[in-house]
Design goal:
The protein is elongated and about 110 Å long. The chain is an alpha/beta fold. The chain has helices at about 1-10, 20, 35-45, 65-75, 90-95, 115-120, 145-155, 175-180, 190-205, 210-220, 225-240, 250-255, 260-270, 275-285, 290-310, 325-335, 340-355, 360-375, 380-395, 450-465, 545-560, 560-565, 590-595, 595-610, 625, 630-635, 635-660, 660-670, and strands at about 55, 100-105, 135-140, 160-170, 185, 415, 425, 475-480, 490-500, 570-575, 580-585, 615-620. Strand 3 (about 135-140), helix 7 (about 145-155) and strand 4 form a beta-alpha-beta unit.
Length: about 675
Amino acid sequence: MAESVQSGGASRGQAYVVLARRHRPARFEQVVGQEHVTRTLQNAIRAGRVHHAYLFTGSRGVGKTTVARILAKALNCEKGPTPDPCEACDSCKQAASGAVDIFEIDGASHTGVDDVRELRENVRYLPARARNKIYIIDEVHMLSTSAFNALLKTLEEPPPHVVFIFATTEPHKIPATILSRCQRFDFKRVPGPMLLSHLERLTATEGVKVDSAGLSLIVRASEGSVRDSLSLLDQVIAYAVGEETIDAAKVAELLGVTDRRVLFELSAALLAREADRALAVVDRLFSDGQDLSQFAQAFLAHLRDLIVVRSCREPRPLLDVTEAELEELVRQAKGDGAELLEQHFDRFARTAQEIARSSFPRLLLELVLIELVNAEPLVPLGDLLQRLADLEARLGGAGPSPSSPVGGAGPRGVTGYGPRGATESRGSAPAPSRPAPAPAPRRAQGSSVATPWAQRAEALAASAPPAEAEPASAPVTAPVPVKGPAPVAAPVPIKGPAPVAASPPVAASAPVAVSAPMAVSASPVALVPAPTPVRPVLSAEGGEALAGWQALLRQVEAAQPVAASVYVAGRLLAFDGKSVELGYPPGSFELRLAQDRDKRSAFEQACLKAAGRELAVTARALRPEEASAPDVVAQSALEAEARERARRAEQLRDEARGHPIVRALVERCGAQIEHIHVIADGEQSR
């Protein structure tokens, strides 16, 4: 190895020429990874369609200046212009060492108008020896705006013997007037496999043995730059003088890059939820003096590779890895915990930015790894929206369904959700299944209410049954004692009709009321105290409180819809024109909104502005006896609006059925009416 390094290096007394210069391409065919540029230029030379100005753009070390020199040599070759310079004539030899008629100008040090003025004076003269005068201006974006403007006329109509070749890494800084006068070629980053093959050929030429894994680390660190990869290889060769083979461990140690095995070890620890292993990796990196900011960037790229393998059928073209590394990526991406990779990437990406700016990167890295180890799957947004919709549906119908028992050993079942939308029942008794609501009927043409909370009322009106007349009498229930040692009674309804009247609160020692007809059974049953009836409240004006509350809500909604929407679904408990008391299901989301100080203050201010009077708002949780009381259930502006809409829709349908023209058509055609569509406000007639 020592002999091979000596042969590739400089002899005593001679300056060493770095690999990037010694192996600079001299022909178009030797340029790596830029076939789209070299082929176009060669064809232009063959066809005699050489432009007077070229712009080469791309990242560092991808061959912009090299191709510019090859193009200059091809244009001035004594056997040309030719796409294949002979390398033997005086013009080709001088092009490699600095020809008289090829001018390389550093744009960073010639930025002013005076420099461009001197260039304009020189372009008028014919070349001294060669066929063309060629100006190669590197980093041309560094020229000032005035210098660009001074160059415009010469660049648009140069003398026939002048060719401009501009090179830049930042084309967006070049004025559009310059871009429009040039043929632009975008140089690409050299793909990893192609650059790896180039390094393997070059190391064989130099007589240096570097294993494939070590070269892969160099390729990955160079980020597609040929010059960077050759500079790193120069450094590695110097580090390992005397070694027969340079392995990946030595390359990683020298370059300070992260060994891929460490990345796989850390990702395996995260997916296995083993925090001790993950923190041990960080401790080892810190002890070895690794740059944790660079490691964070490398691990973020590693997470990206895992996500690509998990998401794509053919990930190989998208990855810069070896076959062994690809197999390990596939194994981890298909294993347990891989469904959290997207979450891990999102969280780690934010922390990687913080680590780059932090004075204590180790602490941030350790804490984020612990967070990722303990991460749980996020619930999709669609599932959350569905839960909110279900919650609104439950809050909209506060009364129990007819089939649900009143009383019992525990509260009514509440539906909960597990991960990914799984449901479970909580409480001692499951909630009765509720049929899916039918589509909401549209409002009749000419309806006067079109508010956001009124739209919510439409949904409730859709599921409400048609309005029916109240019965004159209802079965009155009374307790019937059961003989025997059991100290309980089975509730049985009394079949005789009797009028129902509002009654005062029942004392604790009063008989127990029966909520549903049941047969007498010998087995003991639980007794439930009768709910305290809640009397309807009246407004200060003497009308029903609910009507006055609805009128006030409409006034507020017309001015500030958002402020009114919070209090629409509340059960009206008291309203006297100066204060209002609303009830909500205990623990509900709407209760928390209604009790929010800012929202309550905003609504009170809206009432003062819209209705011209102050209103004190009180929101509280409904007591158990209030939650099932029919009077309280009915006292909601939202449900009152829904009932009115349902009643109005049914009235319109009855009028349509009884219309003389409709009846005549039904009788004449022998048909029947299947559906009557009620036209909503703003809906076009169909």
